[in-house]
Amino acid sequence: LAKKRVVSGVQPTGSIHLGNYLGAIKSWVALQDLYETLFLVVDLHAITMPHDVEQLTKSTRTSAALYIACGIDPTKASIFVQSHVPAHAELTWLLSCVTPISWLNKMIQFKEKARKSGEDVGTGLLTYPLLMASDILLYQSDLVPVGEDQRQHLELTRDVADRVNHLYGGRKWKKLGGRGGKIFKVPEALVPETCARVMSLTDGTAKMSKSAPSDLSRINLLDTPDQIANKVKRCKTDSALGMEFGNEERPECNNLLSIYQQVTGKTQQEVIAECGEMSWGQFKPVLTDALIAHLQPIQKTYDEVSADVGYLDSILADGAAKANLLADTTLQNVYSAMGF
Length: 340
Ligand code: ADP
Ligand code: NA
Known about the structure:
Blueprint: E1 5-10, H1 18-34, E2 36-41, H2 53-69, E3 78-81, H3 87-96, H4 101-105, H5 108-117, H6 123-137, E4 143-145, H7 151-168, H8 171-175, E5 188-190, H9 225-234, H10 251-264, H11 268-275, H12 280-307, H13 309-337
Parallel strand pairs: 1-2, 2-3, 4-5
Bound molecules: adenosine-5'-diphosphate and sodium ion.
């Protein structure tokens, strides 16, 4: 029986942070044993906002090396860079011509980002959900790991897949040799067990994000021990006594305890037994030490992987070769179904 296929990726917009790690990459590690997995660095997504050219080149490689450092095993999973597979850009065009603009206009992330950036946002900010749909549909993915923030995007992908199957996957498609009238597999969401949503260190009601202006708001996977200590020291606190989970009036407290729980692998009960009576002043160094201890082996492997340029290049070349093969099959089917 063929394993189900799972596809996921992170943008190389800036540094990969604890939110990307606990909300996505860490859960990929378990998936690679259960499924056929493809993990891409979605560099084409990184230019929907104005970007730094040299930074993009650098952080694309950094991201790929971090996937490996976080435990993605290139002998089990395919790791590749999105722009090394031209089919992503090509399919996006085809999808953009079959997707009503109203479907894109109602995407929450677009509305939020466009509101922040004013009128002159790039067209790509509107259409990038179709690039994401291409990332998924090109590989006939069965399952897509989704955080809360990506749910609407997966729904759009499913709707677009249905629409293409409906419009072009009929009798004509069968005549062309298509199987079961389906051009695209309609993917399902794979909701991670511990649905980690990591919040900003400076505002417990906003998610930790690469795009937040202040670097103090996030822990990056490559932060030094001093940087981590400084960020935890300066994070937002409150005046209540003790540490607790789930108090809506104390989002920062809940967030930091959750982070502590995740990086130590302890249960909530264990964390409460240990830290419930602590003051912020007592808890912060405990959290700092746990973060440093958790990130140290990742950083060590990262240093090794990035020092060996040939190794990383060969992983990415292998990954791209496999991805191109799969993606081209789908793309050619779409082209012929649409009459090309
Ligand atoms: P960012 O928002 O930092 O630009 P991406 O959009 O590249 O991150 O998201 C990549 C992956 O990381 C997605 O699966 C997303 O759900 C996850 N992710 C991003 N930020 C967080 C967060 N703060 N908490 C949990 N998961 C997150
Ligand atoms: Na994002």
